[in-house]
Design goal:
The protein is mainly beta and about 290 residues long. It has 3 helices and 16 strands. Strands 1, 3, 4, 6, 11, 12, 13 and 15 form an 8-stranded antiparallel beta sheet that branches. The protein has an 8-stranded antiparallel beta sheet with strand order 2-5-14-7-8-9-10-16. The radius of gyration is 20 Å and the shape is globular.
Length: about 290
């Protein structure tokens, strides 16, 4: 009897996960496909960790098997040490096509002793140009740190070690594009971006330092898989309640010390007026 009950239970459980539109946890073996780089993608520890390698011939990367529409995505990353100038290590969400949506976390390498640059951007319907860039308050090459994208229909929060560094609200009602309709896959890549990555291309990659290696582990997705018929609109807690007081203070501290570029402060770029969402009267919304 007990054996029959257990068999029925596990059958129901397996059917639930087979037809579920929700993803919990993550594994590099079961949840990702190789994107480029072949053997330069090195998955280890039963799929719980991965190294991406770039040599003089190619970089490498993976892409999630599933497309997601809203959710929280965490990745622990240890960046390329030493002279990483010209390298780009990326963890991001993206759809396809010229009118694509995208939420970026990119790490732009630098010369030994100089800090990495963490660059964030958001695209909606092919419209990007909303960069915020940060220096980190730790050496991201010495150990793994957790980088997160939390995306629902109402806002996007990008975090480092669970400290929010950027919040972008959905302001479609005032004509600001926001990613709400296009399912996106998760991408993790390491590649040669020396045409722009370090001091806007002034410092080139030194391939005598290759191979360059970045480490990834403990990927976690608490997200809605965009299967046919799935309703993801209320996933991830429904309407955002925003940040609590402590998190807001932590983000304000990051902004006061570590932001080195904010498109909303770029008066040279927007000499004829800042984008609508950057105007002070539209920044009073609680985060």
């Amino acid at each position: 009897m007990a054996s029959s009950y257990c068999s029925s239970f596990f059958l129901l459980l397996s059917l639930f996960f087979a037809f579920s539109t929700f993803a919990f946890g993550g594994n590099f073996n079961s949840d990702f496909d190789s994107l480029f780089g072949d053997e330069r993608v090195d998955i280890k520890d039963d799929g719980n960790s991965m190294s991406l390698i770039m040599d003089k011939y190619s970089g490498s990367g993976v892409v999630s098997k599933n497309e997601y529409l809203f959710g929280r995505f965490d990745m622990q990353i240890k960046l390329v040490p030493g002279n990483s100038a010209g390298t780009v290590t990326a963890f991001y969400l993206s759809s396809l096509g010229s009118q694509h949506d995208e939420i970026d976390i990119e790490f732009l390498g630098n010369l030994s002793g100089d800090p990495y640059l963490l660059s964030t951007n958001v695209y909606a319907n092919g419209n990007g140009g909303r960069e915020m860039q940060f220096y980190l308050w730790f050496d991201p090459t010495e150990d793994y740190h957790t980088y997160s994208i939390d995306w629902n229909p109402h806002r996007i929060i990008i975090s480092v070690d669970y400290i929010p560094i950027r919040v972008m609200h959905n302001r479609q009602m005032i004509g600001v594009p926001f990613p709400t309709k296009q399912p996106m896959r998760v991408y993790t890549t390491l590649w040669n971006g020396d045409s722009w990555a370090t001091r806007w291309g002034e410092v080139k990659i030194d391939l005598s330092n290759a191979p360059f290696i970045a480490g990834f582990k403990n990927f976690n997705a608490n997200a809605c898989i965009a299967k046919p018929g799935a309703d993801c609109t209320s996933f991830n807690g429904g309407k955002s309640r925003g940040l609590d007081y402590e998190s807001m203070n932590k983000m304000q501290t990051v902004h006061s010390k570590w932001v080195i570029y904010d498109y909303c402060s770029d008066l040279r770029r927007y000499a004829h007026g800042l984008p609508y969402e950057c105007r002070k009267d539209n920044l009073l919304e609680s985060v």
